[in-house]
Amino acid sequence: MITKRKPRHPGGLIKRQYLEPLNITITDFADIIGVSRKTVSEIVNERASITPDMALRLSVALQTTPELWLNLQQKYDLWSATNESESWKYITPINLRAC
Prior knowledge:
Blueprint: H1 10-22, H2 26-33, H3 37-44, H4 52-61, H5 66-84
């Protein structure tokens, strides 16, 4: 089920729930998880998505599960696709019983 309210981007969650309260800079966090500062910056500023590799890195560093991060990203992406595009609404279903 798709909600009417836009889900939070997982990058915003990382920023608000982990980096800010723990006073960890983007540069320090990038070093901790073994990626570039630019990669972390793009994620926490909600300009990039969480990949499976990133989900694994986040799960270890933040003591969560990779599924948490992938599920958050999937919910965000599906909501965005549903609400930011109309073209998918014009697809006609295939009559599978006729096959």
